[in-house]
Amino acid sequence: GNPLPRFAPIDMRLRRPMTTLRLLLVAAAAASALLPSPSPLRSPPTTDAALRVATSGCAGEVRRRVPAVTAVLPPPPPPSARRDGLLARLADGDGWLIALVVFVQMLSNALLTQAVPSALYAHLGQDRVATAAALGRISSSAALLDILVTPQLGRLSDTIGRKPLLVGAPALALLCRGVAASRPTIRVLVIVKLLSLLLTSTFSVALRASIADTHRDDPAALTGKLGLVSASAGAAYSVGMLLGGRLLSRSLRLPYLASASLLALLVPLVAGRANETHPAGARSPLALRPPGFGFVRLFRNGVALRSLASVSALHTTSMAMGDTWQVFARELRGWGVETCGLFGSLSGFGHTAVALLARRSVRRFGARGHTLLATASCAATDLALALGSTRVAFAALPVNWVGRTQGMAVTARLTTAGAAVGFGQGSLAGDHQNLRSLLKVVGPTLYGYLFGLGCSVGVPALPFLFATAVSLSATALVLASPSHVWDPPPQPPAARDAGGGGGSGSGDLAAGSGGAGGSGRGGGS
């Protein structure tokens, strides 16, 4: 592989701080679960017959239907009046701003994708198994921290609006990366990575809730916006992986300096140009709930939400390798920093083009058909990456581009299904992120364990074989789910307005974008 940058030796034991941090987070989650607040585990399940009953921010608490707020947003144009082209989508309302904000924010993250894995790899004496295990513990700890905070962030955005979180998250990330650039020790890098992942989730929750505010009643337009977000994220990931590897080969400080510079541009851009999409009249009082259990609402409010959440969970599990995919690539194919960067760059570049066609794919094949095609492509990609050939890995990139759109149709359907049961945009975004975070607690550690187990038995590709099996399970679940989950009958306008009440939920952009972080497919965790 390529020569690694030299890092100053640091006297630190990584395993002990990570173990201590996880124990503290588990204790905090257990203690918070004992708070005297309504728990979704004690709430009665909601059946499909009750889909039109609006629910409050707390799970299971049914309130009287209130008149829907009118004239908050202009009605969407009819489907025949819309165009699918990239320029038309950018010119559609705030499309250009969404694309620019997502690109800058994702680029600031992509520049750092290889920093911590490379630093750990050098610090641990180029021991691939130990590096994979350490990265798994870091990613799991970050996801556990995310579980404690993210459910509250969604409800906080329903109370104070979206813009404060959209401005505050990148501002704090700017501060963290400035500290890392000035003092790039292993201890500082690990802490900054944990905080950065949490702040990225905060930004994602606020952004997807803001998009759902505007397009909650139009799944086709929402899918188009998700395609624009996904394309912007893919383009940023492509550029960031390529530039990040080159900057890292010169100095560990350079990627953090570049990332901080981008965030310094993003903060005033969002503060000056972004509008608040959640009007004051539609906001609800803040009702904190015990963290760690918000995802249960997704499985207790009808067949549609339960099926969609299950598919999303399998998608997340198949892509939960985190940064460990780079270690797997070093072992299976002998890749270095620049080769990993090139693979990730090409992965993001092609995904940018494919994501723009996702809306047309959904219209042509339906939500179920598109999800089947993309999920099967993910399974084929993982199987190709398990072969250990560099030529096969790069040849599988076009299939990878299609596979990374697997969550887009699921996200759009999850949004409309959440709206039908009265989920607030922020509440649904927080609960969905909570589900993904729970899986990411287990995912990186599980993949690291499978890698160590595979190396011990002579099958180092075991993580990719497991991901293939998970993707095939998701494909089977999509086939087995009822048809109304994917193509529900159209609702009359009066019923739709009555059921919308507090707004709609929103899926997880990260699941569909595939641009943030790393995975076994070169991007998108």
Automatic annotation (TrEMBL):
<keyword id="KW-1133">Transmembrane helix</keyword>
<dbReference type="InterPro" id="IPR036259">
    <property type="entry name" value="MFS_trans_sf"/>
</dbReference>
<keyword id="KW-0813">Transport</keyword>
<feature type="transmembrane region" description="Helical">
    <location>
        <begin position="446"/>
        <end position="479"/>
    </location>
</feature>
<feature type="transmembrane region" description="Helical">
    <location>
        <begin position="256"/>
        <end position="274"/>
    </location>
</feature>
<dbReference type="GO" id="GO:0016020">
    <property type="term" value="C:membrane"/>
</dbReference>
<feature type="transmembrane region" description="Helical">
    <location>
        <begin position="335"/>
        <end position="358"/>
    </location>
</feature>
<keyword id="KW-0472">Membrane</keyword>
<feature type="region of interest" description="Disordered">
    <location>
        <begin position="484"/>
        <end position="525"/>
    </location>
</feature>
<dbReference type="GO" id="GO:0022857">
    <property type="term" value="F:transmembrane transporter activity"/>
</dbReference>
<feature type="transmembrane region" description="Helical">
    <location>
        <begin position="188"/>
        <end position="206"/>
    </location>
</feature>
<feature type="transmembrane region" description="Helical">
    <location>
        <begin position="96"/>
        <end position="122"/>
    </location>
</feature>
<protein>
    <recommendedName>
        <fullName>Major facilitator superfamily (MFS) profile domain-containing protein</fullName>
    </recommendedName>
</protein>
<dbReference type="InterPro" id="IPR001958">
    <property type="entry name" value="Tet-R_TetA/multi-R_MdtG-like"/>
</dbReference>
<keyword id="KW-0732">Signal</keyword>
<feature type="compositionally biased region" description="Gly residues">
    <location>
        <begin position="498"/>
        <end position="525"/>
    </location>
</feature>
<feature type="signal peptide">
    <location>
        <begin position="1"/>
        <end position="33"/>
    </location>
</feature>
<dbReference type="Pfam" id="PF07690">
    <property type="entry name" value="MFS_1"/>
</dbReference>
<keyword id="KW-0812">Transmembrane</keyword>
<feature type="transmembrane region" description="Helical">
    <location>
        <begin position="226"/>
        <end position="244"/>
    </location>
</feature>
<dbReference type="InterPro" id="IPR011701">
    <property type="entry name" value="MFS"/>
</dbReference>
